[in-house]
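question for whoever is on the cluster today: can someone run the full assembly for these? two chains, 698 residues total. i dont have access anymore since they changed the login thing
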Amino acid sequence: MSQSMLNFLFIGISFAVYIVIAVRSRAGSTKEYYTAGGGVSSFANGMATAADWMSAATFISMAGAVAMSGYDASRFLMGWTGGFVLLTILMVPFLRKFGKATVPDFIGDRYYSKWARGVAVICAIFICMTYIMGQMRGVGVVFSQLFGIGIPAGVVVGAAIVFFYAGIGGMKGITYTQVAQYCVMAFAYTIPAVFIAIMITNQPVPQLGLIGNYSLNGESVPFFEKLNRINVELGFQEYTTGKLSMVNMFCITAALMCGTAGLPHVIVRFFTVKSVQAVRSSACWTLVFIAVIYLTAPAIGAFARLNLIEELHATPYVEAPAWFREFEATGQMVWVDKNGDGTIQYFGPAKSAAGTSSVFQGEQPIFPAYDAPENQRLGTHGERLLANKPDLSNPNELWFGNDIMVMANPSMAGLPIWVVSLLMAGCIAAALSTAAGLLLVLSTSISHDLMKKIVKPELSDREEVNYARGASFVALAVATYFGINPPSAFIAQTVAFAFGLAASSFFPTLLIGIFSKRMNKLGAISGMLAGMIFTSSYIVYFQFLGGTKEQLLFGISTEGIGFVGMLLNFAVAFLVRPFGGEPPKEVQEMVERIHIPSGASEASHH
Amino acid sequence: MTKSVDHRAYSRACLRILAVLLGIWFFVSFGCGILFREWMDEHLPPVGTAPFGFWMAQQGAIICFILILIAYAVLMKRLDAKFGYTEREEGQ
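^ ran it for u. tokens below:
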């Protein structure tokens, strides 16, 4: 059976399963639509949350990011898991006790103000929108590879599927679909890792291989020693030490952690279990399931990097392994024969006087049109030529996207082709589950928080669900547009922005709302606005208006600025509070009440 | 009256658990993984063959996070039972 037939088979079967689940558990009432009726078991909810949480970016690009930047990528590993500790200990048990359906609900009631709710809704929509764009892009990339269509068409296909089952199933449908999706993802991620670990370190558990010995070609040296040596020989940073400054590393990790704890689509997941105690155990399960993937990613990254260098560096192009040509054909790998010797050379910045390692000029490779004359498309050795001019300031000839580390892994390890199909199915599962969860929060924000609570309070239950479905359609259309024309080249970057905003708007406001009885609406709203405006203008300035590296505040990059925005939010909230008077008595009582864990299941929905 | 005293004692015990666990959380991630990484790489014995600080940043911290959450669930459950806040299962 050929690769493409296997792909269709695997993805077809997995889709059939998802759709059957979605249709069988579709939502009837608003309560089922928003929070699955609050009756999901903590184990199932943990698994579903893990699937919701792990996006296409995590699934496809994270191992690649680890491979490329070694120690520096720890910021993602720690940031995205450590956030769950904050979320579980500081947020969700209390919010679950409060018992409403959405995060703006809590902010609106706690700060007794439509304005606070309004600002929260805008933040929620903004965060989810930023986040979902990356997901749609991810779906598009996989579908385009799968069907051999362009990325735009791939994005549209993905959007149609997400709309179909998120719109129909609501939270209940999504939760049970995500359980299935998690299983697909976990298998797809770990199986290739096990094989490549056996190949490189003779150790079936990837995490043990990582701390074991490199044992290919009869050698036996500590794995990281080998990797560090190769990295340094080729002019890269030592793998186990980073390039980022400590301040930057600290801020980015902190922003990702606090952002995780403030992401509305993750918080909402814990409203689906039945009690505060179930929330705690569910969060525990979630982290266990996430860790299965996050503990494997560093292993995949490190193994894949070593393997890639050994297989490609100093290899004549005509003798390069077959998978190299495949990825060259899809434009994910590029070789520019700068010195004309017909051999692939891979070098880091330390090998050039200019300190650069870019293969060509510009950010992304641009290929000549299909109808261009053959001598513009193909080089003397049959390699694919670029329309970009080569960057001759350094000797590096090999370019590849981050995504390649996961996708090329099975081929590099010489695994049977069905593993690649499984990986494709896993990747789509990752993107779909996250997109569906986000879409639900987006539509809820619009139908429940905006329409029902602010614009049209007399909305009936049924009308509200219809609004939610309509809103998810509009939201998806916008997300599709941005998936086709992404504002930022890297999927992982787009996601990082969402965290900055969540860290600077939701996290501090929720935290103060839960732990300070005396915070009033004036302080909270000012803090939230200050954090949000500061963070988003910083990001926009440096990402789109051409801010230079020298202008960065303390050298903190856009990914880490959410942490500063968060501190600003706290500071402004407490400075402004004295001007706003005491919050009403019933609000203070409510804050006391949410600290007592019993009686959550009796809490009303509306 | 006794009820509000109970509430306060419960909240205080609860905050103590939070503070201890968050302290550990900060130490294993920001401490071992970032602030003292270089020192730990050099001075502490390697984990298997990997440098200690690096291993903490990529693997150890995540394992500790799981342990923290397990500890949290267990400690809070015990605290709830002590103060009689245990949820009736599917009661209402």
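summary bc i know u wont read the tokens: Chain B touches chain A through 46 residues (CB under 8 Å). Residues 36 and 47 of chain B are 16 Å apart (CA to CA).
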